[in-house]
Amino acid sequence: MTDTLTANWIGVGRLEDIPRQGARAVATPRGDVALFRTQDDRVFALDDRCPHKGGPLSQGIVHGHAVTCPLHNWVIDLGSGEAAAPDRGCVRRIPVKVEAGRVLLDLDGATR
Amino acid sequence: MNMQAHERPRLVVVGNGMAGMRTVEEVLARAPGRYAITVFGAEPHPNYNRILLSPLLAGEKRFEDIVLNGLDWYEANGVELVAGERVTGVDRAARLVQGEQGTTRAYDRLLLATGSDPFVIPVPGADLPGVVTFRDLADVETMLAAARHGGGRAVVIGGGLLGLEAANGLLRNGMKVAVVHLMPTLMERQLDPVAGGMLQADLERRGLRVLTSAHTEALLGDDERGVRAVRLKDGTELAADLVVMAVGIRPSTALARQIGLACNRGVVVDDALRTSDPRVFAVGECVEHQGVTYGLVAPLWDMAKVCADHLTGTADTAFAAGVSGTRLKVTGIDMFSAGDFAGGAGTEEVVFRDPARGVHKRLVLRDDRLEGVVLYGDARDGGWYLDLLRGGEPLGALRDLVIFGQAVATAGGVVLDPAAALAELPAEAEICGCNGVCKGTILGSIAANGLTSLEGVRAHTKASASCGSCTPQVEGLLALAVGEGYAQPQGEKPLCRCTALGHDRVRREIVERELRAIPAVMAELGWTTPDGCHVCRPALNYYLLCAWPGAYRDDAQSRFVNERMHANIQKDGTYSVVPRMWGGLTSAKELRAIAEVVERYAIPTVKVTGGQRIDLLGVKREQLPSVWRDLGAAGMVSGHAYGKALRTVKTCVGSEWCRFGTQDSTSMGVALERMCWGAWCPHKVKLAVSGCPRNCAEATIKDLGVVAVESGWELHVGGNGGIKLRGTDFLCKVATAEEVLEHCGAFLQLYREEARYLERTAHWIERVGIEAVRRRVVEDAAGRKALHARFLHAQSFAQDDPWAERATAADGPVAQPFRALMPAE
């Protein structure tokens, strides 16, 4: 993860803009980012592209700390970005934090 | 070369099949650290249950369901697996095994478990492409690939156990299948002629073509396009894209012969399963013991035990052939046979026949002892008869009632229910014939390990883990031992990995415990995950919606994307929009509105669908609310083309215009669609109405099809034009339009209440039978009216156009979920 001091945090909305057990897409200059909010109110951000066939992960069903891609049911771990076995692949993670109800992304700090 | 000194003696096993691996398991159970074990397997897979290839072919099981020892098992037990490498030689003097790819392993004890080879009859063309045997996973994959290639025709040569299971599997995969059998009746080694004839009739009813007393003369075709036909001695030619040879097996002895071990038909072994070389043992279908070879699983397990006793020196046991029973693994066909049922001098026969129920039972007795048994149509008592056969005791007082089965005979004519009969069994009664597990062992393991599931019993005892036909008894014992805590009394498959409960049980609990929200269901029924998964959440959402119409608050986050967005997601992440056109009718106003929307939003593709609607493809997510608003302004509503819901009612023009039409099918279609639209269902539902028996609306491949005749309307149900074509079953004929609506509403409500989520009407009816549906919807008038009333009640909450609720300018507040968020700075 990125160093908090050097990170370039950008506000993209409020926590309540994302439904619990749901997601929203964020249109960024570097392509769409999927912003997830899990049942336990954790927030994760991944590229909005499934490593399989590019399906929009923001439109999948969110369960536990995972999302199921709406195109072919790949299950992606929100924490690691990794596809669950037997599928193999990884989605880019984007640093995200919630401060005073605001959701902030660090688009420069993306990691694989 | 692996020549370094080992501290432990080395056991090398040639053959990673059921007999070899069972022996390894028995060795590990007796003396876990005794040997350093290496297993060579010619197939590139972990050890799987070969008996279950038939259900695998029939699509009833997946490969992971039939794996016996996964790769993790080998690792956990320190067993080295050399998979995908055939053993090509053994140097008995140097005690070295050589693999095809150069792997070499030294041994102190060698175990041959090479199994058997399918017998290929030496007719011209037997080596053509498209001719396969039925022996391993690769054969099953070849057969499935042939079936996927577009139906096609298959000929199975051999009407024994294996041939019929292959034929059934191919039939289930949509092929046209003929069985060619040399003998006058099917399965003549396991069934008497009467039962063989009944079996033939049952299989023919399922669509199998059976030719008995049929000699195969040649397989026709060429190397380029493969096999094309099977020619019989009488000149008959059967077209074939696939030929399966299933005429028998013979012990695989090539390696044993090559290295100079004594062989006849099989590898000769003594009572300790030792070959002519005292360091080399052999088990399974490759062996010959006292002139007999074996093809069933139970004696293989006995061999494994005896061989392990001698390999570990734990006991000086001797292998002795026992009586085994046979069952055919074809779902819906219940048969069992064991012992010698040829009859003849000195024997008496007790026969029970009930042709109406399709039941035939024949017992052969000699000197008041059971010698053979054939059961067809009702094989519940197979295990009990097998116990009597093996026990060899005089029947005595049992003699008069023995034909009626255990429940009647042991209670002296008082019929016990199955649970009581199971409770009555002595502890040493055998439950699982395949693995030789008796009642006492199962109950002991349940108590000692605190088991509550079938899987648990399978893992600890192997009972019901092979052919599965004793599953009801094992489940019965679980129910006896655990009572209420036992999760699956019906053996229903778990809904998903989050729960042990099946669909039907979950639905029952929702109603009985009045569970009204997804978190409540998960908490009450012990879900193992915090909030489910993409499999169970949509199912639970539907079950709750169906159980509590009007009261349940739909959970959008538990809906698949299409039902959440009310449009069909496409491969590029855009959506398709299909407005409803009642009965396939449209107007200038609607067409104009569609044309304008297409131009305004630059929608790339416009397509007429198979269900007589117009599909707008390539609409961007954020455009959806505006597209709906503009279509809504012309009076158009959601066509639900994206939902597990009523899709379309397809119609022909009917008597209003058509010179052949007998009734106004278009108006009927509109009336049906007005009644049914918006109904959420276990899966998608398609209707059609044809105005005459020419059936231009193709009503007989729909979930519910209505066909007009002069005197009224015929109703057909359970059709499906998908991956596997299924024509409808005829439900009934009614006279009036009101009756059509009432029957249709009742049928859909029955489907909504009783089918499992994602089960189409076709699969549901295949599972419960058309008769069960007819009893509820046709014969029970009061029940039908109640179902119809419940349908209308649910519809009163369902018929709100989801598009109208969300139709707005793209920047309005309800359009939120469709819009992307934007970085603020």
Shape of chain A: globular
- The quaternary structure here is heterodimer
Could you say what the CATH architecture of chain A is? 3-layer Sandwich
Pairing-aware structural class of the strands and helices of chain A? mainly beta
The CATH superfamily of the domain at 10-116 and 251-312 in chain B appears as: FAD/NAD(P)-binding domain
The CATH C-level name of the domain at 10-116 and 251-312 in chain B is: Alpha Beta
CATH architecture of the domain at 10-116 and 251-312 in chain B: 3-Layer(bba) Sandwich
Side-by-side strand order of the widest sheet of chain A: 1-9-8
What percentage of amino acids of chain B are in beta strands? 15-25%
CATH class of chain A: Mainly Beta
Number of strands of chain A: 9
Largest Cβ-defined interface: A-B, 36 and 30 residues
User: For this structure, what is the CATH homologous superfamily of chain A?
Assistant: Rieske [2Fe-2S] iron-sulphur domain
CATH topology of the domain at 10-116 and 251-312 in chain B: FAD/NAD(P)-binding domain
Number of helices of chain A: 0
Main sheet: strand order of chain B: 5-2-1-9-21
Shape by Cα distribution of chain B: globular
Would you summarize the structure shown here?
Chain A is mostly beta strands. Helix content of chain A is 0%, strand content 38%.
